[in-house]
Design brief:
With about 120 residues, this protein is α+β, with helices and mostly antiparallel strands. The chain has one domain. The chain has five helices and four strands. It has a four-stranded mixed β-sheet. Helix 4 packs antiparallel against helix 5.
């Protein structure tokens, strides 16, 4: 037997995001990105400054996406993932980091902050 909702249809949340929902989400992601950047140490800030990066949320998971301009920067970012993950975890315990190498230089690496200890051993 299916339960009927307690609220009338007009009081239920919308099934699709509205324009204002999208704007608010974008502002939240931008603010989170700014706070994350400010929480980073000088070395991590310098690395992020040399890349294009942003924070997004998909299915409720906060994701830091980093696009590296060259392979040297890519390896510096990859080597710094434990520190980046430590800072990102302050904002969401189930966050992820996705690092994209330069175009044509390999596949992106995606690491959950929950997996950082295993990743550190892999380095």
């Amino acid at each position: 037997m299916m339960k009927r909702p307690f609220l009338p249809p007009e009081d239920m949340p919308p099934t699709e995001a509205t324009q204002i929902d999208r704007i608010l989400r974008w502002q939240l992601e931008r603010s989170t990105g700014r706070c994350f950047f400010e929480a980073c140490d000088r070395i991590t800030r310098a690395l992020l400054y040399s890349c294009q990066w942003y924070i997004t949320t998909n299915d409720g998971i906060l994701t830091l996406v980093i696009d590296c301009p060259d392979i040297v920067t890519y390896w510096h970012i990859v080597s710094n993932i434990p520190q980046i993950g430590n800072r990102l975890e302050r904002f969401a315990s189930n966050a992820k980091i996705t690092v994209h190498p330069p175009f044509g230089k390999g596949a992106p690496i995606e690491v959950s902050v929950n997996e950082i200890s295993a990743y550190r051993d892999w380095l």
